């Protein structure tokens, strides 16, 4: 028996709060889970700063990755059991890609990528094909097997149905994270009937994705609504974003200091390659939440008051406050606050920050195909395919909704702390107060 | 201490799958639960024929009524604890009305009211103020106390906030039945964050209802979405409606037979008052699911073949099949099927039935006030009130959606059974087949 | 393809609150569900009088029967997938028996069987092999197929492993009812990890039952604990048993009246065969909760004051009260109460009733084999089999526990109502009070 | 209004997966949550190495601490609402102690305390009264308020009922962690009816603890069973303990190297005080999971092969394997394996490790009082108090059960890897194999 089809002596299971159990019977999958690159995902939180708002959400990408694998396994082995069978290799390419799809995430991806310009999808591919334990395991199937797995992530694997299973408007990735994030935060919004959706998925007849039987339309509507609610209530939560703002500014500041020749008390050796933009694959893999958090903790003692303050804020949850911000209407407010902060010797580039939810990697639903995410298609009784939002006014309304949420973050504690001259502080407080009255 | 404020020696609880526990500490509430009119609700199913589709949904109105009481109790005693306090009498009027609001439901209300023209809300009031154990208990508070409780149901109690707690777009009745029906059917759609909604409700400043703090908008959106899903997926389910159609036709047939002088083998004494439209309050209270179901079971043996067949169908779940029906486009199909059935000696008034979901007492959301159901108002940060759908495109889309679902029910088993001449049967099958091809 | 192995065009599912979905792909199973004998189970409550205590528990045996079928289906098709395969006929015999195992239950079985001496297991077999729709469907497989299915219920089917799947200390019947009854009552006690237990079950090497891999011992311990808790807290609840006592006494009284020549206002025709012990299969099948409840409701108007009172009590939940009763120590108390009731013209054979929990068809765990229920065996690492309680002190303690709970039921409301002479009433109250003080 | 009784303008809530919401209305509690010592608990995992077995269990002590606070808040403000009222100060002492009870936990407490001899309960007190933000906040109530809060932890606060709420056989700490750990691992074992237990708790009449109304006995039995199951299935799981063994050996090795003058490539400055046993409060607070994990990650690159290997094992989950071990019977096996490892140049003090579950800080139930944990007392109907296990055979059996689980951990991968001479490896494998055959 080849390694591709080798089974474990006995099926192994992982107890999982979302799916009950994650089932592994393929030796290859078992070996991939044991690699150090996959184990590293235990040290990357799934939801960056969300636990600052929802304290329950402390789960890792390891946790989520097993879930995505389990969903794809069920789709391939159960849902598609009566479809023309996949080749063993195709099946395994999909399972591996599902398991490994988040391998390239670094710590706090959103803020990190903003400052250092890295791209987690590219790193996922690099880890799959590079000089890694993962690649070594995959190569035991065949020399070009890692490339095949990577091409799912790159979205150019010939069987596009398998690509879409892992990345489309209704993919295993989203289905798992919605359920999982809802479970860990404890909110009720993210729940939908996964079992029913799995029953109504079908490979698209054109071999180019996954479609949904019309009888499952309402289950998919419910999934889109869950998505909408999770984004509105959890992912875009302004308090978590306040944590993101701090992260972004910490990294920006540290990089700037380094480039300006600042001498750190302890050299942040694992981060240096990123400061100078000379990052090897090994450098990348070494980074995880532990390393960054460790630096944040020692940077609290750094001489630079901005870096030290920002790190203390992040670790001890002394967040910036926020107000709703309209770039057009509120330009004057911004300018005046900026001036006042400067007068108080508080650097506005770090302490007066505009953050827009549209920067976040989430969307409720995009009916158009230009989005890079395949829209959801319904298989009608007569065999016709129709895009979901043409049949569902609710989904249409959600897809139409693009109200970007923009916040302006500011350091209320500084203003109130006596660090700012009373007359300046009073003016700032009064500006902020007047602005909040204007709002609905 | 007066009866109005008398407490039980120790708080009593009912274990409840939806709310954990239902708490009773008022002697009056305890005594009302023990009345025979309230105990009768154990013999009225909450969801009529839904258990023909969702077998889990076998719960009674007793079950639901305790739940509505519990929600109102929490709103009054917890949510509104910091509001200007209600008079003890106002509080108790609301709790009693919550507990008793479904008292006037008869068996299988929807079909029953259609045939006999009764109105459960009127009967609820009649039981509250009439010669009943319930009324006797209420009168111990004061002679006019039953009238006050009834006026909540009638919607003309002076404190309109309390009226709206029990009947409005976001009332305790709906909140309980959505959660409860979701629990018993086992579907995930009906879930929303009740605890959060209870936290953001406030009495309207104009004393005319309940409003929602803006911070709770998404929780209320989620509740509206749950409603939409439950109606689409559960309440309007065409298989349950097929059961409703049988009920309606059974009652219609029995009444018609009686009025035409037909002699029943066993006189259906408890139903006779309804056949002749001379119904006393006592006659009404005697009726419950047990009595009707008993008659259905013995009517299986009646000589009239239509009555006997319909009853057998209902009890043994041999339902009529259905097709989508558009009164304008499909008039011809209807006419031809009608003709063919008549030719086969199958009475189309009982076996070819058009049923529209808009006849059902459900709506997703009605933003307008003319609807008799107060729309939901948000309390904005600046004190302004805004109707929910002006702020939420999703709710707006749901409120706009009015696609009535119309089905045509027909007896496929008769057609296929040899009871119908082959050539006629073939024609019918081919008509039905062609129609289904036309559909999406 | 033979009827035995015929599949539906598309798998059908029933939404189930306990198992998510019940899956049916065999035509035979689908046809059995559609029979009128199986549909009749919708009209038999699973838990007789339990809903008088736990209002949520209004579910039927239809509901539970689908669940037992689903568990057996999973064991056969999934758990045992790697075992030497069952013959298609063996598989189907087991699935049919699982689905049909409760077919012979009558209304309120416990009290009914006590009064009329019927046996639901015998009736289950009779319906399976008799002149019924069920038998007709089964016979389409082969003439002797109904007998084979019945022999599972009779426990003499050659493959004893399949017998034990449906009746043993860890059978699909108990596993489903514990989970289901816990769900509907809303208590947390009945939950255990069904998925894990299903993973560790194996057919016994001696072909004589089901055994459990040692690694699953704690999961099975948890199941036994759930059982213990459910019996203690739900099934033996003295308030539900108070309802049972009323049922028992109603049936006893009605039978006695009839045998004594009493003339009922309306002849209770469907119950007469039981009064005279001349019951045909058809008579039996006609009976369900509806019929009995209907008679109870009209018997409220009967001239016999005992029958009328008991029926009113049952329907309106005016239950007898209870005290702990020790047949040895409390004989005197019993005698004196009896005398006092007689003095007050209240017939103690109906109103002073001793009820013992050991009469109920439940036990926590019986390690011995003489019990008719196979004990649970663990498969040790070295291949040895050991009885569960020899390995688990907790199970041993539960299996040892045989504290029978005996209650004495009495009509407190009569005593307090003025119906009883003050001096007699006072004496009774003081006896009862003194007894309760004596207790811990 | 004094700080002790100062309320927030509006009650704040934390969404919590276990309790729904955690409610905070006291300004003091809000301020304590914002301190850096409390925020530090976000960086200490609740369950050390359990997530190596149950990947879902990645939650922190921050999470759990809020839960313990919420349970105590409910007991004091709801359960005891009708008891003689607590003084505001007593109430607040209990709430603060509940919130802060885990403040002194260091990273991976179990292994850490074993190696360095620290005691988290002492550090909890030290943080409460020392030079910390927590102490500063508490002192705003009064100079001696920190001492009062600390005396709850020290168990000598005058009101012993409040002490027992936080530390006894049925305290808020255990109730929260059982429910929470069950939720995050996804197992069903830890669930019990918290709401019911909270209803039946009462302050002991002797002012010396909490007692349970007899009517709640079965709910408490269920809680003890949950505890038993969680310990057996989760806390004592040999795979998690394998992680603990690695941690213990890493810390032991690092300390030994340092004391022997080994030069680390990067000085582990935050751990040095522990190596030399000169630990200030500030040193202690700086330590958290982040710091230790960071060192483990860089120690992978250390020159010492043992330290480097052990750290790599821990981070990449290459665990030692285990076999059941009986110190008496298996002494010879141990000796021979030790000799063989030494022959293969594998230091047995790090790679052949005996671990006993009795070292873990868990017990199922201890009926005796000498245990330092007050046993559970039932309040009988006649006012008498009885120890739980005298009434419940199940609890008695659980309390009696003291089967310590001892494992011997060994490096299977080394043995199989070619690092060990074939003949030595073969002998080891054969010893291990023979041992496993001997077992049941």
From TrEMBL, chains A, B, C, D:
One of its GO terms (biological process) is dGTP catabolic process. Gene3D superfamilies: Hypothetical protein af1432. InterPro entries: dGTPase-like, HD/PDEase_dom, HD_assoc_2, HD_domain. CDD domains: HDc. SMART domains: HDc. Residues 61-178 form the HD domain. One of its GO terms (molecular function) is dGTPase activity. This is HD domain protein.
